[in-house]
Design brief:
By secondary structure, the protein is an all-alpha fold. It has a single domain, classed as c-terminal domain of poly(a) binding protein (Orthogonal Bundle). Helix content is 74%, strand content 0%. It has helices spanning 7-20, 32-70, 76-85, 92-101, 103-113. The longest helix is centred in the middle third of the chain and has 39 residues, at 32-70.
Length: 114
Amino acid sequence: MPRSVNAVASRARRKKVLKLAKGYFGRRKNVWTVAKNAVEKGLVYAYRDRKVKKREFRKLWIQRINAGARQHGLSYSQFMGQLSKSDVQINRKVLADLAMNHPEAFKAIVDQVK
């Protein structure tokens, strides 16, 4: 009796990984073992950096709000403290956008919380 190997599924699995490796440099794009390792590592980075992206954007928003608040004589922490005391419910993403693209609207918020 001939040996049964599931060649169809094996080839499909390899094709799937090699398709994910498209655009990689050198043997990473066309040699199965190298491509498999590169794709696995890339997927690990993608999973990790979806979390890191959220941290990076929050840091950026805080820097922009701080720069906008300091133009009106407040630090970031003072501004956020007064914002919460005055019960204004605006998140950092919107505040950063206002500070950068609509300074007159941001000034109105600062004047409201002072």
